[in-house]
Design a protein that fits this description.
- There is one protein chain.
- 76% of the residues lie in helices and 0% in strands.
- It has helices at 2-19, 28-50, 59-82.
- It is globular, with a radius of gyration of 15 Å.
- The mean pLDDT is 88.
Length: 85
């Protein structure tokens, strides 16, 4: 059912990230944590757009929001790794 599609999507994203040299320095647990946080953020944003609760739902704003969050998330994980957390 629907859960199978989501699991397949996550497996595909995990595989891509595992092969991406920008992320191979991170443990599998860190890579999975980043994917899960991005999943939560992107679906929360999509929910807000679908519910017409965004004052700006343009493609540019949405892409900027995803990029900003993704960049902040990666920076936070790098900082956490440097600090030993």
């Amino acid at each position: 059912p629907d859960g199978d599609i989501i699991r397949e999507f996550h497996a595909s994203i995990n595989e891509i990230q595992d092969q991406d040299s920008r992320f191979t320095g991170n443990s599998a647990a860190v890579r999975r944590r980043m994917i899960n946080k991005m999943w939560i953020f992107s679906h929360g944003l999509a929910t807000l757009v679908c519910a017409n609760l965004m004052t700006d739902d343009s493609a540019d704003y949405i892409l900027d929001s995803l990029n900003d969050f993704g960049s902040a998330l990666v920076a936070a994980e790098i900082s956490r790794a440097v600090e030993g957390g």
